Amino acid sequence: MMLLAGILVLAVGTFSLRLAGPLLRTRFELPERAQQVMAAAAIVLLAALVATAALTDGHGDAGIARPAGVLVGGVLAWRKAPFVLIVVAAAATAAGLRLLGVP
């Protein structure tokens, strides 16, 4: 019963925070500098997530094939290639390198 109560409290809190954003957006104005910092923080967090997922496998190194695939996908995304092409090229790069025996 205690577990269900905890889940219910967290669900209500999460819903309240998600609802408060649109309702309170017109009442508070963030300074321009704070908005720029928040935008940069989102980019840094996304880059850290990509780096962690690309370079590690559990507690060890991911090898070379996965980071190479991510690098190919990143270059194609930077060049504004279609998303399907980015995914297929990244997967093909990693699979091709693994097929050649590269870890």
TrEMBL record:
<keyword id="KW-0812">Transmembrane</keyword>
<keyword id="KW-0472">Membrane</keyword>
<dbReference type="InterPro" id="IPR008407">
    <property type="entry name" value="Brnchd-chn_aa_trnsp_AzlD"/>
</dbReference>
<keyword id="KW-1133">Transmembrane helix</keyword>
<feature type="transmembrane region" description="Helical">
    <location>
        <begin position="36"/>
        <end position="56"/>
    </location>
</feature>
<feature type="transmembrane region" description="Helical">
    <location>
        <begin position="83"/>
        <end position="101"/>
    </location>
</feature>
<protein>
    <submittedName>
        <fullName>AzlD domain-containing protein</fullName>
    </submittedName>
</protein>
<dbReference type="Pfam" id="PF05437">
    <property type="entry name" value="AzlD"/>
</dbReference>
